[in-house]
Amino acid sequence: MKVAILGAGAFGTALACALGHAQLWARDVDHAKDMRTTRQNRRRLPGVDLPDTVTVTSDLNEVDAEILLLAMPMQQMRGFLNDNATLLASRILVACSKGFDLDLLIGPVGVIEQVLPGTRAALLTGPSFAADIARGLPTALTLAARDDALAEHLQTRLSTENLRLYRNTDVTGAELGGALKNVIAIAAGMVIGAGMGESARAALMARGYAEMQRLALSLGAEPETLAGLSGFGDLVLTCGSEKSRNFRYGMALGADAAFDATTTVEGAATARAVARLARDRGVDMPISRMVAAVLDGMLTLTEAKGALLARPLTLE
Q1: For the whole model, what pTM was predicted?
Q2: Do 242 and 201 meet the contact criterion of CB atoms below 8 Å apart?
Q3: Residue ranges of the domains in the chain?
């Protein structure tokens, strides 16, 4: 069964490298042409050669795979699905995005199901850096689908020697884990960028994880999912490495330094969505709320730190 990756960013390219026999679709014609010529994605993943078995196209009509991995920013997904609904409706769609749609306040599988009702949809998420996957380093991810038969089918088809997939039917939990950890990663980056120290980062990660659990459970997720790869595992990775775009973004904010505006930082949009969702559901998420306030210029980092430290003392 053929597989195609729609989106030639770093992660989409890495998946193509890991899967080997696959099509890789790039939105930009010149980008696709350059990849075909150089056999590298010099824009997003330089230094990694595409396998000879990976074909690159910019024409969506040339994509003939049954399984489509949607490796695109969360905020672009709904428009892409609407624009190409007829072409996509009969395929198996596996979202590889982490975040919430800002208008609908739902995750990537929810967006697929809302735009294309009845479509077989799944989510690929968990602790992973594109460079590691592309170079064949051991990586474990979560493959979540509401239908376990579909999850098992995709797990078998997409697992490789070095890419190990664990399946899960708790789509809500997997979506939330992947989205919420990006917000905490921005906060962790702020802590390190501002020179608050490793102890402060550890405390923030622990309390951030508690926030993630509170919101996820309020939305019907299973606690075991948040304790797995798509929750705790992804949180540890993104809060502890400068390979994480969200962490680097937070570091830049904390250090009052410049950040590459062309880099997609999913956690920034997610922070705003989470603040609204938590408020609407009455869930206490002080770290996420402070991140959103700093991003929107409502608070300085110093004010946000003071507000968090001044909260009433309580039981853990």
Answers
A1: 0.96
A2: no
A3: 3-169, 178-310
